[in-house]
Amino acid sequence: MIQTALTHGRKLATRIWDFSGGGAQGSMRRAWLGGLVILLAACAPAPLRPGIPTLWRASPNFGERRPNFVVLHHTDDDSTEQALRALTAPYGKTSAHYLIGNDGALYQLVDERSRAWHAGLSKWGADTDLNSSSIGIELQNNGREPFPEVQISSLLALLDDIERRYGIPSENFLGHSDVAPTRKVDPGPYFPWRILAQRGYGLWCEPPLPDAPAAFDAIAALQVVGYDVSDLAAATRAFKLHFAQDQAPPELTDSDKSLLYCLTRHGRPDSADEKPARCSE
Questions:
Q1: Which of 71, 147, 193, 221 is deepest in the core (most CB within 10 A)?
Q2: Are 182 and 233 in a shared domain?
Q3: What is the distance between the alpha carbons of residues 69 and 200, in angstroms, rounded to a whole number?
Q4: Which of 233, 137, 152 is CA-nearest to residue 191?
Q5: Residue of 64, 138, 149, 171 marked active site
Q6: Main-chain phi, psi angles of 93, to 5 degrees
Q7: Residues linked to residue 69 through DSSP beta bridges, in sequence order
Q8: What CA–CA distance (Å, rounded) separates 185 from 274?
């Protein structure tokens, strides 16, 4: 944006003055480089303005937007080259920030500061536009086979780097099926959520699970975790696909309710004498 360009331009101009030297040659160099700074600022895009009149008063106090979620996908393709073509074709209108091949090769397709088109119509908790608040990562997989160890190792290295830079909360590492349960099933039943949770990426509860209280509201618990329950069957299916790695039976069982109870408590005991369930976060 022009504001950013001018801010950087002022800093560059100061350096030009300090280091371009004295005499006629230094003056010419400062003039040439100063003109270049002005030209670069003029080429910057104009700031996005509202549809009503405003008075523009630029402030230097701003930064880039920071993602607060990571959404994981599988490509549903049989090869990395197929996935690359689909994610970079101008007519496809779909993309992701990263693609990881089944050989572990890591491709960056979109700048993290930009809004990649990967989540589509989506919702998690109160967030109704995951494209704007997340980094999208595609893993080349056709949805019918396990993910190779080398591919997951590459994913974990990328997640380590992303978390270190942005401090994304552990519970905000999600699947496409979590945020779009009526439309999507990826990254699918073979995705190793347990391994990711052991590294701090996502929630996970290990048996033995605590018994849910008699008055436990499983639907409200799904909402607390983050699911959109406007289509309860879809939300239940997505929950079971992620945390139980299974979709049968389609309704919430007592075991599912115990799992939900653990997830909503993050393994916290009800009293000092009770041992918490093992719930990774």
A1: 71
A2: no
A3: 14
A4: 152
A5: 138
A6: 55, 35
A7: 134
A8: 37
- Say if residue 1's pLDDT is above 90: no
3 state SS of 232? helix
Residue 169 lies in a domain: yes
Catalytic-residue membership of 163: no
> Over 139-184, what HEC string results?
ECCCCCCCCCHHHHHHHHHHHHHHHHHHCCCHHHEEEHHHHCCCCC
- Give the 3-state secondary structure percentages of the chain, helix then strand then coil, rounded to 5: 40, 10, 50
Give the predicted TM-score (pTM) of the model: 0.81
Q: What type of residue sits at position 222? A: L
| pLDDT tier, 46 (very low <50, low <70, confident <90, very high otherwise) | confident
Containing structural domain, residue 14: 2-43
Tokens of 140: 């080349």
Q: Does 48 fall in a domain?
A: no
